[in-house]
Design brief:
about 90 residues; mainly alpha; 4 helices; about 45% helix; binds zinc ion
């Protein structure tokens, strides 16, 4: 009569992250980095990708030490990966 069924297996994290990559557009990646939020509206260009633009408030915040360089570096890496994924999907 014991309740012996225990759900022990958890879904694979790798498949979850692949699904998330499909959902996250490169334009939306910026919202996944919460510490970027206060600066997103201060960029010179509305279409700013926050990777290398002049007048980018996010990059300025990185240079001022308000956002950690490693976080911004991983943002750029993910941004480039998402950009490549999109190009692949369009083929
Ligand atoms: Zn920017």
């Amino acid at each position: 009569m014991g309740n012996g069924t225990y759900v022990a297996d958890t879904p694979g994290f790798s498949s979850i992250s692949i699904e998330r990559y499909d959902v996250i557009k490169k334009e939306n990646l910026q919202y996944c980095f919460r510490e970027f939020t206060p600066y997103l509206t201060r960029c010179k260009f509305a279409s700013c990708s926050h990777t290398c633009e002049k007048g980018c408030a996010v990059i300025e915040a990185v240079e001022d030490g308000l956002i950690s360089k490693s976080r911004h570096a991983s943002y750029i890496t993910m941004y480039n990966e998402l950009k490549d994924l999109k190009e692949w999907n369009m083929k």
